[in-house]
Amino acid sequence: MQEKERKPRVSLTIEQPLLDWINQEIKTKRFASQSHAVEQCLAAVKNRDYSKGLSLDVIESDPQLRSVAPFFHFEQVFEDKIFLKDDSANQTVTLQIKNKQLYCDLDRTTNCVHIGFAWAIDKVRAVLRDRIRR
Ligand SMILES: [Zn+2]
Question: Over the stretch 59-78, which tens digit does the pLDDT of each residue have?
Answer without folding.
Answer: 667 777 777 777 777 778 88
